[in-house]
Design goal:
The protein has one helix at residues 274-280, and strands at residues 9-10, 21-26, 28-31, 34-37, 42-44, 55-59, 65-70, 75-79, 83-86, 104-108, 111-115, 122-125, 133-134, 142-148, 151-157, 160-166, 183-186, 193-197, 202-206, 209-215, 223-230, 241-243, 246-250, 255-259, 264-267, 290-294, 299-304, 317-322, 327-332, 337-342, 374-379, 385-387, 395-399, 409-418, 423-430, 443-444, 451-457, 459-466, 475-484. By secondary structure, the chain is mainly beta.
């Protein structure tokens, strides 16, 4: 038993003879031991009625989950049983969030603030509002929102796409320039503002620059602005995701992760999958890139339009990058909106499934019933929220080519190291680098754990498929049964 056919991490950029890599790792996620299955998305609740163009999920002041989603014409709130109610403004008419505009949200104190660039900035006050309404103070219409220290910051203004306008200190409804530290800053170069990350300090992402925004209390300038990246910025606005002290995003030339303490960014996947990603992503589709975190799995997930996509109207592929081990794989899935979501609470009507009052393992005031666990969720063509908690998706791996000292080999069988039985393997053999890669018929795993084959060539590779719905834990590799063959 040998490793004639190599197996390893998803590093298509490192393709080579006997390279311990896989060229394809579909519908799985990377883990320390190799790859683990990725669950399918399951829709729940009712439909929002039209395509979702942004969503947010937060905890209110009492610890209960409050979740909203925006469509082209409405803002809706998620209720018990995953039923959506329309909480759009009662005056001003339907919203006009036409493509490529999207809803983007910020949380400031008791306010959930929503902006779509076209309509007046909207606000929901937790514990008070029953509908969204225009945020007080007449803030400017803007594409992006962030919360920096005690300020609401709006960026890419209708009046100036290179400008930001921040609110009065500790007042989301104060927008008069020169009053209570509210002001405007326009950046002379760097291109249009593409996104904002808030926190103790802010980061303003432009198309060709990134600027740090530091509050300087008592100064005439209010904020100090320092350019930390020049000539390179944010290419895909909704790819930008903030995770603790880091940010992940798609720059003009590929994927990046930024240390928010230092302001230094570095490319992701160099020598591994970076070139593959750049070649796989449809050019000029940056407005259809959606990033989100799956924090319980250490994943930055990026939905994007691949070159294989026929319609080019919505993402069909999702890169899943584990930031802890610096490895990736991908998932084939449709996504109109991708977001980090909070699990919904359990109400009295649905509590029966956990037992009666005498047998409940948790007290009625336990935090569990309020929900709030962070989840990755997606809105697809049915316009329902979907969670990745279904059965395992059909996984597929393609190995690099293996060769033994220039000698032709006859592959008589393989043994995939995957802890399930619903596995098939196709082996391809060829004589020259330039020959067409043609796989033999797929063979199923026998009760010995081996998969028969009968393929010869100077170069051999395998395509390994795990059936949808199979229960498995890890895919670690593949062994090869082979023997020397004479030259042709």
């Amino acid at each position: 038993m040998t490793r004639l056919i190599p197996f390893g991490r998803f590093h298509p950029d490192a393709e080579g003879i006997n390279a311990a890599v896989v060229l394809k790792a579909a519908n799985v996620r990377p883990v320390a031991a190799g790859f683990a299955p990725f669950r399918s998305a399951v829709s729940v609740g009712d439909s929002l009625g039209s395509q979702v163009r942004g969503a947010v999920s937060r905890l209110d002041s009492t610890g209960n989950v409050i979740s909203f989603a925006g469509t082209e014409t409405a803002l809706k709130k998620l209720g018990s049983g995953h039923v959506w109610s329309d909480v759009s403004r009662v005056s001003g008419g339907a919203y006009s969030t036409t493509a490529p505009e999207r809803w983007r949200f910020g949380e400031y104190g008791s306010y959930i603030i929503a902006t779509n660039y076209v309509d007046d900035v909207q606000a929901w006050q937790m514990g008070v509002s029953s509908n969204f309404a225009a945020l007080g103070g007449s803030p400017p219409k803007a594409r992006y929102i962030g919360i920096v220290r005690d300020f609401v910051v709006l960026g890419n203004l209708v009046s100036d796409n290179k400008a930001i306008h921040w609110s009065a200190v500790n007042d989301a409804t104060g927008w008069t320039v020169g009053t209570a530290s509210s002001d405007v800053q326009s950046f002379p170069d760097g291109g249009p503002i593409q996104g904002i990350i808030g926190g103790e300090v802010g980061y303003i992402f432009q198309r060709e620059a990134v600027t740090r925004m530091t509050f300087v209390p008592g100064s005439g300038e209010i904020f100090q602005f320092d350019e930390v990246e020049s000539g390179r910025g944010l290419f895909a606005p909704d790819s930008l995701v903030h995770n603790a002290s880091e940010a992940f995003y798609v720059g003009v030339d590929s994927l990046y992760r930024m240390n928010l303490a230092s302001g230094v960014s570095r490319p992701i996947g160099v020598g591994k999958f970076r070139d593959w990603f750049v070649a796989d992503m449809e050019p000029d589709s940056q407005s259809l890139c959606f990033g989100a975190l799956a924090p319980q799995m250490n994943l930055y997930c990026l939905a994007y339009v691949s070159r294989d996509n026929v319609t080019k109207t919505s993402p069909d592929r999702m890169l899943v990058y584990d930031w802890a081990i610096d490895e990736a794989a991908f998932v084939n899935i449709t996504a109109n909106t991708l977001t980090r979501w909070l699990s919904q609470g359990v109400d009295l009507d649905s509590m029966d499934s956990f037992g009666d009052l005498d047998s409940l393992e948790l007290s009625l005031d336990a935090p569990f019933w309020k929900g709030g666990a962070p989840l990755l969720s997606v809105f697809q063509d049915d316009n329902k929220i979907a969670y990745f908690n279904g059965s395992n998706m059909a996984a597929e791996f393609v190995t690099a080519d293996g060769q033994v000292d220039g000698r032709r080999q006859l592959i008589t069988g393989t043994r995939p190291h995957i802890d399930c039985t619903g596995v098939t393997v196709e082996v391809a053999g060829r004589e020259r680098d330039g020959d067409t890669i043609s796989y033999a018929a797929a063979e199923s795993m026998e009760d010995t754990g081996e998969v028969p084959a009968w393929v010869s060539g100077n170069y051999c590779r395998a395509r390994i498929t795990v059936a949808a719905g199979e229960s498995w834990t890890y895919a670690k590799g593949i062994d090869t049964m082979s023997q020397d063959m004479g030259s042709r």
